[in-house]
Design brief:
Strand 1, helix 1 and strand 2 form a beta-alpha-beta unit. It is built from 20 helices and 9 strands. It is mainly alpha-helical and 516 residues long. It has a 3-stranded antiparallel β-sheet with strand order 4-6-7. A two-stranded parallel sheet has the order 1-2. A two-stranded antiparallel sheet has the order 3-5. It folds into 2 domains: 195 residues, Fumarase C, Chain B, domain 1; 304 residues, Up-down Bundle (Fumarase C, Chain A, domain 2), CATH 1.20.200. Helix 3 packs across helix 6.
Length: 516
């Protein structure tokens, strides 16, 4: 991983979503701000005072969870914090992606920097140093119930900070944490009162994945408008239904934005103009064409709500107990992941529906009863050639998976910790399945783009409009046009990479300007 650009400042205020993406994906370093350093010192001072007092304080002088009734003497409190990290680093399964771990660590650091967790400055500096050095703890996928926060994933991050477990270095090599820390000039942490608890008690894994998902989905919804425009054009649909005055009759901003995108993308199309007269026999387009902005737009409005929830959580200090502004240390329930779990599930539902409509448009291209004069399956010689028949099978298989991934995780709860933690959010599980769903949507839209491109080619000598034509040209630079059957999987992979990289949206925006 190459560290890129200016350090991201981490202070008492929220980290901006774009900075989460920079740290997670571009390897940006981080730097604590002066106000964060002051807040850390003040919070740690409150904990030191309470640690010396006679009153039991959860996480400072007691055990954890169902063991909170046990008073821990001063001489055992470092062991208490170390034991917490070791025991809670109980994850299992494949490694979580590096970008997710880096986002998780950044957001935990952001909460530490508020001073409300009571940790010493050195704790926050260690996390900042690990992020800046490109050291990424190995975090297994399973272990979080989304309450009390993302315990096991965060514990694996903390385990590396105390010099145990394994990390991935800047180039991805696996190495022992103590050796990697030494090479980076970072001393392993020796945790004092409350610090182990402060490192594991947060929603940062869920939140990091939500921020990354929102970033990705916003671009994918623009791509969904691009592929829909190509399909509408190639299937001889009309652009009249996307008129602004029609959209204004229904007061939802997302559909209006999507319809405006479609109108711009289809502007100047010779194919659309060729059947725009009163003699056109098509009275109304199918729903998958006519209602494209209603579905992609509703997904936009759902995304806007998710972004608002993410912004609130980014501005929050999530820990239990917390150090209040007046120096109290109070237990609370802010670590519960329900606010994040709900929107992660909402987004998975929207993703499945956008993909489902995309697959229906692809299927129309392949059916001679519905594609208005194109060859069966867009094949060169139908019967000898199968064309894109099985590409739609691939799309349908993915869409079926997306429907299963849309089943909410947040409605489930399995009690834990001897019934002390008797209701959990499953927000981490919602985040994990949303990541898989976004990958599926990318692949589904790529197949629609591949199919629509062939359909547009087969409308020759009529040519597509400037924007859709630019997308077609970008695809043709990677994938050949219509002809006898070829090995199809590499072509799907090539267009999927164009979709994932944002290249298809970029070339359309180069013609019509930024899409909403």
């Amino acid at each position: 991983m190459v560290v890129n650009g200016e350090p991201v400042p981490v202070g008492v205020g929220p980290v901006h979503p774009r900075d989460v993406v920079r740290v997670a994906r571009a390897g940006a370093s981080v730097a604590l701000t002066p106000d964060a350093l002051a807040a850390l010192e003040a919070g740690a001072a409150h904990i030191r005072t309470l640690a010396l007092g006679p009153r039991p304080v959860y996480g400072v002088s007691t055990g954890f969870g169902a063991l909170a009734t046990r008073h821990i003497p001063v001489e055992q409190r470092q062991q208490l914090q170390r034991s917490l990290i070791r025991s809670h680093a109980a994850g299992s399964g494949p490694e979580v992606e590096r970008e997710v771990v880096r986002a998780t660590m950044l957001l935990r650091l952001s909460t530490l920097a508020t001073g409300h967790t009571g940790v010493r400055t050195v704790v926050a500096q260690t996390y900042a140093g690990m992020l800046s050095a490109g050291l990424t703890p190995v975090v297994p996928e399973y272990g979080s119930l989304g309450c009390s926060g993302d315990l096991a994933p965060l514990a694996h991050c903390a385990l590396a900070a105390i010099g145990e477990g394994e990390v991935r270095g800047p180039e991805g090599a696996l190495e022992p944490a103590d050796r990697a820390l030494a090479a980076a000039g970072i001393a392993p942490l020796t945790l004092t009162e409350k610090e182990g608890l402060a490192l594991v008690n947060g929603t940062d894994g869920m939140l990091g994945q939500l921020v990354l998902a929102c970033h990705d989905l916003r671009r994918l919804l623009a791509l969904a408008d691009v592929t829909a425009a190509m399909s509408i054009e190639g299937l001889l649909g009309t652009d009249r239904v996307f008129a602004a005055d029609l959209q204004a009759l229904r007061h939802h901003p997302g559909p209006a934005a999507s319809a405006a995108n479609l109108a711009r993308l289809l502007a100047g199309s010779p194919i659309v103009a060729s059947h725009a007269g009163p003699d056109c026999p098509i009275v109304q387009d199918a729903y998958s064409l006519r209602c494209a902005p209603q579905v992609a737009g509703a997904a936009r409005d759902t995304l806007a709500h998710a972004e608002q929830v993410a912004a609130r959580e980014l501005a929050s200090a999530v820990d239990n107990p917390v150090v209040t502004a007046d120096g109290r240390v109070e237990s609370n329930g802010s670590f519960h992941g329900a606010p994040l779990g709900y929107v992660l599930d909402f987004l998975a539902i929207a993703v499945a529906d956008v993909a489902s409509m995309s697959e229906r448009r692809t299927d129309r291209f392949l059916d001679v009863a519905r594609n208005h004069g194109l060859p069966a399956f867009l094949a060169h010689d139908p019967g000898v050639d199968s064309g894109l028949m099985i590409a739609q099978y691939t799309q349908a298989g993915i869409v079926s998976d997306l429907k299963r991934l849309a089943v909410p995780a947040s409605v489930d709860s399995i009690p834990s910790s001897a019934m002390q933690e008797d209701h959990v959010s499953m927000g981490w599980s919602a985040a994990r399945k949303l990541r898989r769903a976004l990958d599926g949507l990318t692949r589904v839209l790529a197949v629609e783009a591949l199919t629509a491109a062939r359909g547009l080619d087969l409308r020759a000598p009529l040519r597509p409009g400037p924007a859709t034509g630019a997308v077609l040209e970008a695809i043709r630079r990677r994938v050949a046009g219509p002809g006898p059957d070829r090995h199809l999987s590499p072509e799907i992979a090539a267009v999927t990479e164009l979709a994932r990289s944002g290249a298809l949206v970029d070339v359309a925006e180069a013609v019509v300007g930024p899409l909403d």
